[in-house]
Amino acid sequence: MTPFLALTGALIVGSSDFIGGFLARRTSVYRVAFGEQVASLAAFVVLAPMVPTARVTTTDLVGGVVAGLGVVIGLLALYIAFQLGPMSALAPIAAVVGALVSAAAGVLEGDSVTVALAVGAVLALSGVVLVTQDRDAATSSTNVSSRAVAMAILAGIAFAAFFVGLSRTSSDAGVWPLVAARIAGVPVIGALVWHHTRGFLVEREHRRLNIAGGLIGALATVLTMIALQRGPVVQAVVLGALYPFSTVVLARSILHESLRPVQWVGVASALIGIPLIAIG
Asked: What is the DSSP secondary-structure string of 155-211?
C-alpha cells in the first residue's frame, strides 16, 4: 500500500505544482499560494473529524507545524522560480536539493553513505549542472537564470523540512497534523500577501483553478503523510521524490516548454538520481 500511496501522492502534488506555477505566471504568486493554502485548510478541517483518531501528541502537532512552514516557504520559492524559468528544468532541481538535504539529515543521524546514495548524488548534481547550462543567446526561453536556480534550491530545502516534519507524525493522530500545518502556514502567507499586494484573492477568472490546485495539493499531502506513517519510510521518500515527473510532463504538453537536448539529459539524470539518493 505504501508504494501506491507515495507514488500517487507524488504524481498529484506535481500536478498541483504545475497549476500553481501556471497561475503564478499570470497573477500574484503570493495570492496563488494563499488561495491554495486556504483551500487545503478548509479540506483538512472538514476531513479531520471523519478520520479515526486515537490520540494527538505534541510531537504530532510540532511535526505538522514544521511541515506547514516548509510548504509555505517551498511553494513561494518554487512558484517564483517558475515565473523566472522553465518548469521542466526547475522542478527537478528543487527535487534534487530536497532529496540531498533529506539524505544529509539521515547521515547526520547515523545513516551510512551507501553506493546508491553516492551514485544518486553524482547523477542528480550532474543533472542540475546540465539543466542550468546557458547558451549564447541570452534571450532564449531555455535559459535558466541564477535567481531561478536559487529559488528552486530554497524550495528544495523547504520541502525537505516538509518531509521531515510529516515523518515525525503518528498514524494515531489522523489528519490533525495537517490541520496544524495549515494553521501555522496560512497566517504567514496571509501576512506576506497583505504586505505585497494589499489583496488576498486572485482575479475572478483564476479562482476556480486556484481552489482546484489547493484541493489537489491537499489530497496529495494526505496520501504522502499516510505513506510516511505506514512506512517503510524509504519507500515513501523514494517514490514521493518523483513528484517533478508530472510537472515536467504537463509543462511540456500544455505549455510546450522546449528544452535543449543537453537540458533534457539533465532532467533525466536528475530524475534517475533522486530515487537513488532516497534509497541510499
From this structure: HHHHHHHHHHHHHTS-GGGTTHHHHHHHHHHHHHHHHHHHHHHS--SPPHHHHHHHH
The residue to which cell 539529515 is assigned: 105
Q: What is the mean pLDDT of residues 221-233?
A: 82
The rounded distance, in Å, linking the Cα atoms of 100 and 187 is 29
Share of the chain above pLDDT 90, in %: 47
In order, the DSSP letters of 50-118 are GS--S---HHHHHHHHHHHHHHHHHHHHHHHHHHHS-HHHHHHHHHHHHHHHHHHHHHHTT----HHHH
pLDDT tens for residues 178-193? 999 999 999 999 999 9
pTM over 0.85: yes
d(CA 248, CA 250): 6
Could you say which DSSP state residue 5 is in? H
| Torsion region of 198: left, alpha or beta (phi above 0 gives left; psi -120 to 50 gives alpha) | left
Angle, vertex CA 131, rays to CA 127 and CA 134, nearest 5:
140
Domain count for the chain, please give it: 1
Three-state DSSP class for 120? helix
